[in-house]
Amino acid sequence: MKLPIWDLPTRLFHWALAGLIAFSWWSAEYHYDDLHIWSGMAVLSAVIFRILWGFFGSSTARFANFVRGPKAVVAYLRGSWHGVGHTPLGALSVIALLGLTALQVALGLIASDEDGLMQGPLANLVSMETSDTARELHEILFYVLLAFIALHVAAIIFYRLGGKGLLKPMITGKGEIEPGIEPMRPGKWWAAVICLVAAIAITRWIIAGAPPFGG
């Protein structure tokens, strides 16, 4: 029987982030610097929203319900873990991707190009040398992020070949759940709105130079 697994905010975040990362690559590759900066700000809003939603969202979106210790990972690998949402091993992938994306954005915030003509909104808070280093790390880290994304896609294909589709539930929100397993407990719609407004507000504050610390 198909029951709710993923809430709408989580699914929208997932696909929005995928599209924004692709657009960020395209805008950087073809030197649309203004678009790249605004795309990065959109990624920042998405990441902040997901972090907040990880505390106030549905049961399968909350970090407390899917970030588990080594014992849970071992139990999953042995086939003795049963639950809904992110598996203990999948949770590691989620945290890694979220962390790498956040770090990538953070580096972009303080980076500047070689001529100093284009820079992140917080570049004035650091020295030119630090800003140059941030730009170099920003470029390198993208390939690390790309590798993790490739691993994520490979895992989806692996599970699909094993008879378990992960893609469709992230579109429809519903999937097969083992008998006796509690389905997703939805979050409140107003909590999603508050998280989104807060994410946008924080992003706007950063765009303004994070006053009174800068700007």
Summarize the structure.
The chain is an all-alpha fold and 215 residues long.
Describe this structure in words.
The chain has eight helices and two strands. The chain starts with a strand and ends in an 8-residue tail after the last helix. Strands 1-2 form a two-stranded antiparallel sheet. 65% of the residues lie in helices and 3% in strands. It has a single domain, classed as Up-down Bundle (Fumarate Reductase Cytochrome B subunit). It has helices spanning 8-29, 33-56, 63-66, 70-77, 88-110, 128-161, 167-172, 189-207, and strands spanning 2-4, 174-176. The longest helix has 34 residues, at 128-161. The model has no long low-confidence stretch (mean pLDDT 92). The protein is elongated, with a radius of gyration of 19 Å.
Please tally the helical runs, counting DSSP H or I stretches of 4 or more residues. Answer: 8
Total beta strands: 2
CATH topology: Fumarate Reductase Cytochrome B subunit
The CATH fourth-level homologous superfamily? Transmembrane di-heme cytochromes, Chain C
Please name the defining characteristics of this protein.
single chain, 215 residues, mainly alpha, Fumarate Reductase Cytochrome B subunit, 8 helices, 2 strands, 65% helix
